[in-house]
Hints:
The protein is α/β, with parallel strands linked by helices. The protein has two domains: 2-34, no CATH class; 67-287, Rossmann fold (3-Layer(aba) Sandwich). The chain contains eleven helices and eight strands. The protein has helices at residues 24-34, 42-63, 71-79, 94-102, 123-133, 145-162, 182-192, 198-201, 208-214, 228-236, 267-272; strands at 2-4, 19-21, 87-90, 111-112, 139-144, 171-177, 218-222, 242-247. It has a six-stranded parallel sheet with strand order 4-3-5-6-8-7, with helices on both faces. It has a two-stranded parallel sheet with strand order 1-2. It is globular, with a radius of gyration of 21 Å. The chain starts with a strand and ends in a 20-residue tail after the last helix. Mean pLDDT is 87; it is low at 255-292. Thiamine diphosphate is lined by residues 91-95, 118-120, 144-147, 176, 178, 180-184.
Amino acid sequence: MQIDLNPRNVGNRYPIEVGLVGDAGPTLRHLLDRVQGGRGSGWRAEVEESVRRWRGIAAERAATPADPLNPESAIRELGSRLPADAQLALDVGSVVYWYARQLVLPPGVPAHVSGTLASMGCGVPYGIAAKFAEPARPVVVLTGDGGMQMTGVAELITVVSRWRDWADLRFVVAVLNNGDLAEVTWEQREMESAPRFPESQALPDFPYAGYAELLGLTGIRVTAPDEVGAAWDAALTADRPVLIEFDRPRRAAAAALPSGTREARSPAEGAASGGDRNGPAGPQAAGGVRRP
Ligand SMILES: Cc1ncc(C[n+]2csc(CCOP(=O)(O)OP(=O)(O)O)c2C)c(N)n1
Ligand SMILES: [Mg+2]
């Protein structure tokens, strides 16, 4: 059974038996009136237990040390700092996994992702669109270096030409600069047992924070775990758009996964069994769940 406001979404992803078009709240209330045999609590308890377990795994992943930075921790640290009226925009890449695992958004904070087409380069443009729609709300963009090199670097020029008109000046672009098209690197390892192919996966170096400074914005380079919180704090209290460059984040938990093997069963296990020689560690490798 699927309830959706938009009839076009009903049954568009999974086979369903019944499609109901309407607002989930009132539709569920109408359904409850028709439920017979009382309300079982077993399934709810099971879901609650699963969520509790999942959040524990997420916390463990974020707490796993990495050299020099664990990207899950960098994204997780945003969670407690997100303004209640923020808007989030995401590019495509491993950052979507970290967002899905590590951020619990306050009610009313929307997040924009390229969910169906997964078009890289959408992050900064989505952020700009969010700012045009609601200039009085702070915007946070989460992106990889690949997305930045597709459009983000150029679109910062748009930000520069517009930011002084915005009622709230906060526009934070967080770049996970891992020098790699990491999501695909790991997809190819896992789906095709293919080792990392640097000729196609490596990205050229680019000074993201330095470039932001050159444009008259604020650029912050984060190179160690103890700088992460202060960087988010500075960006979310700044009087102009800020780019935070997380320099060389590496996925700690997946560090041991050689190409073509099954994933590590737990973050600790993955981290314990040594380093990865084939390139930056990626999202598919650790734990049981691979897709946001
Ligand atoms: C326009 C486009 N080209 C290619 C892809 C395939 N793709 C998905 S994620 C990804 C890598 C993203 O790299 P980056 O932005 O650096 O993020 P990372 O995974 O390294 O954190 C690629 C090539 C895509 N989704 N969209
Ligand atoms: Mg990258």
